[in-house]
Amino acid sequence: MNRSAILSLLLIALFALSGCRPGSTSSCLIKGTMEDHTLDGKTIYLVPLVGPHDAAHVDSTTIENARFQFEVDSTEVKVIRVGYRYREGIEDMLVVSEPGTVNVHIGKLSSCGGTPQNDSLQAWKDSMERYRMLLYQLQTAKRKTNDKDAVQARLEQLYDRQQRYIAEFAKRQPEGALKDVLMKLYPQPNNK
User: Fold this and answer.
1) How confident is the model at residue 25 (pLDDT cuts 50, 70, 90)?
2) Domain span including residue 139
3) 56 in any annotated domain
């Protein structure tokens, strides 16, 4: 084998190996912060939204200095949550483990962002929170008023508006893990 053939094989091998390195641009780095230091030393979990929840599919790490970090090589919707004993007052957070850096805050009101699908996921979560707050206010008003029909009409308008928002929001999403989950959670009559 001549020298240029050996050099070519070494270069090809080098390129092939460098493409398989952990930390390549296709991996997802999830950087998280906690609301405070009360859970330092405790375990936080990264769990698939769908599928098995066994040791092969669930990742965990220790919270240190109110921070945690996960590195993921697959794109899917996952849930970040603390252990059962510590969940009271702490909201689980959905994240999409897509390439890039996802910034997550875990606490009473958890949040995520930093990548396109996670920014969209946070916008959807914010809309759902506003919807739940308005729904609660109207249901409370309905119990206290004599004009239950008027409040019921407003409840129905709110529901219809939210369903339209969800349908349009899901349609606007590019193909990917977030859109797949939204279409399963909120199937639309014309979607196949």
Assistant:
1) low
2) 117-185
3) yes
Pick from 159, 161, 110: which is nearest to 138 by CA? 159
DSSP secondary structure string for all residues of 20-83: T-TT-TTSEEEEEEESSSTTTTSEEEEEESSS--STTT-EEEE-BTTEEEEEE-S--EEEEEE-
Cα 167 from chain centre = 19
pLDDT confidence band for 92 (50 / 70 / 90): very high
Shortest CA distance to 109 belongs to which of 126, 84, 127? 126
Number of domains in the chain: 2
- The string of pLDDT tens digits covering residues 146-177 is 999 999 999 999 999 999 999 899 989 999 99
Helices (H), 84-192: 116-144, 148-172, 177-185
Q: Does residue 7 lie in a domain region?
A: no
